[in-house]
Amino acid sequence: MSDVRPRIRLPRSANAGDVVEVKTLISHNMETGLRRDGSGDAIPRQIIHRFTCEYAGKMVLDVEMEPAISANPYMEFDVQVDESADFVFTWYDDDGSVYSETQSFEVS
Amino acid sequence: MKTMTKLWATVAICGAVFSSTAFADPHPDAELIIEGELHIATRAEPPEHLGGVLPEIYSGWLFRTDETRELQMDDFDNPGMLFAERGEDRWYTADGSAEQSCADCHGDVDSMAGVRAVMPKVNENGELWSMQNYINNCRTERMGAEAWGWNSDPMKDTTALISLQSRGMPVAVKIDEEAAEYWEKGREMYYTRFGQLELSCANCHEDNWGRMIRADHLSQGMSNGFPTYRLKNAAVIPLHQRFRGCIRDTRGESFAEGSQEFRELELYVASRGLGLPIEGIAVRQ
Amino acid sequence: MLTRRDTMAMGLGVAAVAMVPGAASASAVDDAISAFTGGADVSEGGVTISAPEIAENGNTVPIAVEAPGATEILMIAAGNPTPGVAKFGFGEGAATSRAATRIRLGGTQDVIAIAKMSDGSFARGAVEVKVTIGGCGG
């Protein structure tokens, strides 16, 4: 997949123990496998089928995704940040590629 | 005879669906405020050349549902920003035999402020060029690189990025002097009926804006939001691609993206929105 | 060459994914649910789905689901060619059992969410989302 690009939005700051909202986006066609090209042949399926988020080594969200998730998949969820630690976001593509993004987060 | 009956039936149905409903007008008081800070006007006084056919001019943003409008109000939620970001990486990456990036000549991308607002524009040889033409000219003549296709990913990314630099600046296309002959042709096309359904741009966007065409809330067809992220395509769409789709929907053969006809139409359509701010990368259905 | 199907598809302004004939059968929906619940009883309530009443375009519909206390939530689109949409698993680090995303809906239909609670019980919520066909999708 050419130039798959993840984006993360985290709040600028938080206190230990706060609940923060995390937003993630990744550019990906999420080809369903149901579309047909001009010659009538089915365009093969290629989607991100799984997304995970870990914080401070603990699993936050583990989503199994189907072709019904829109292109450029967006995920939003809440994390309790008890300590300064790393967020690790991982997207798993049907073609075997794994895209990962790590962001450190500081709590005051 | 049978074909004519079918055709008239279709036209009659189309006529019937131009009905007023509770959705009749654009949203009365929605404000486009991006990230809670950046106010973008979505209403303006109509330009003089319209001669009063529109009482006020409205951005297409006002005609969309709450959920669609919200997507444009946050630069993270706006999926079109992904494309601008990709474009930004490309801006700083060398390409072509001259081993230059856009930045090598133009500096940071914010030097492009104002460019989108005046496109399309007549070049020094008297030709009417869209942003895509200027970009490809740089690539082929100065960078020693290949031209990008009008609808290609790199072209969409780059035009999205450049448009973003003019966000909030009013549409300011030139329609007189060297541009006048192109503007006239564009205006003629706007009022020409196309296709089996014999629809002109004006039939929908001047005569029936605010009404529902089936379940779609018709806008005034302004182009200040282009290139725009369309939910239907889940991608950034350039204006010519939208023109192509519109003419196809009249069940007619459409012109090609980048054609002389579409560049002239682009100029005229832009001029109907003179005064509305560029929305960077808009979100539409 | 522009075929009649192409023109119709574009004229109807329907997302390409939705040009697949037929929706999932009621049994496909039931199968998806029992695969998740193992056939256990599912009570109503405690599961909230937030979705637009009318989705302006079925290709990108913002939707959120929340079920306080749930460890997993299965989301199903009862009218899509295949009903599965997503299965959200909330781990130790999750602050809430809430997730929001954007989905594809091929037509007006019910979106169903089944939540698996920490005590192993199941709860259900559903909303109808109207998906419109625009006049001139271009």
From TrEMBL, chain A:
Pfam short name (any one): SoxZ
Taxonomic superkingdom: Bacteria
Domain Sulphur oxidation protein SoxZ: 8-102
InterPro entries listed in its UniProt record: Ig-like_fold (IPR013783), Ig_E-set (IPR014756), SoxZ (IPR030995), SoxZ_dom (IPR014880)
NCBIfam families: SoxZ_true
Protein name: Sulfur-oxidizing protein SoxZ
Organism (species): Roseinatronobacter monicus
From TrEMBL, chain C:
Keyword Signal attached: yes
Residues spanning the signal sequence: 1-26
Keywords of this entry: Signal
Sequence ranges assigned to domain Ig-like SoxY in this UniProt record: 35-136
A Pfam family annotated for this UniProt entry: SoxY
The protein's name: Sulfur-oxidizing protein SoxY
Originating species: Roseinatronobacter monicus
